[in-house]
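Chapter summary example.
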Amino acid sequence: MNTVERELTGAVHSFDLSIGVDGPGTRFVAFLAGCPLRCRYCHSPDTWYRRSGQHRSVTELVAEIERYRRFITVAGGGVTISGGEPLQQARFTGEVLRRCHELGLHTALDTSGFLGDRADDALLDATDLVLLDVKSWDPATYRTVTGTGEVAPTLRFGRRLAARGTPIWIRFVLVPGLTDAVSNVAGVADFAASLATVERVEVLPFHRLGAHKYTELGLRFPLVDTEPPTPELLERVRGQFAARGLTVC
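The structure predicted for these 249 residues follows.
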């Protein structure tokens, strides 16, 4: 290990163990602090700024992961780097993924793809799976959802992953009155179907479980009056993806 690796630090908000949510099996999930987007349905506004995280070196975080190495390996899991947006700290993320790969752990990157251009080949070489959050297909809807940014970087990143042969799980958050337009869903579904390495699509129903965090931060939750999608709406949207020959979860 060289001096650069020992001294490299990142802003880590928290970490947790999850089962079947952030990739296959039981996983150690590290949530990095900082995100350039302000999604209206975000359930973790406490991860928006790097200052909300604790500075950890690559060595410190990997040491924490190693405490769970045997458990997550036996459980068929691995390590997922999430956020916030982990590619806002691309160098730190890449080193953690590389070190985990060297330990023989399955690795996953949970990202919006908005900063996909920051992921160099070395980072992606150490990534076994990308959980790609495609927020919307329609550019205007994307801007409304995120408050900033463009959809093009996410699409470009997805195509790059497919060209590399990197497995992808597409995630799409279904918000009534915001992301549920038939044409918008069709665009995301067609895009997902065009990527040869997409293994599954997760249609995630909007929820308000993180609303209390906005109150604690003195912020107003933008979708406080929005109801979760009905079973009928979920069925229709999942059907749109399934009609493209995609495995829908």
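To summarize the output: The longest helix spans residues 90-102.
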